[in-house]
Predict the 3D structure of the following.
Amino acid sequence: MNICNNGYKNNNGDDNMKDYKCTVCGYTYRPERGDKLHDIVPNTAFEDLPEDWKCPTCNQPKMAFEEIK
């Protein structure tokens, strides 16, 4: 795992990263894509997102997300 330019951890394609879905709007955070709106680089695990990160669609906090199994 490396720390990227923006200070976030990058897992370099770790296959164990899980997708998370917002329980409010249905947006799915996919680690392999990251979040361009918030400068989250691809391959950033959900757990490594900053605590103040919010859903890019409905602005809900991380606690509104559930792991997709």
Notes: Confidence is low (pLDDT under 50) at residues 1-6. The two ends are 23 Å apart (CA to CA). Strands lie at 2-3, 9-10, 20-22, 28-29, 65-67.
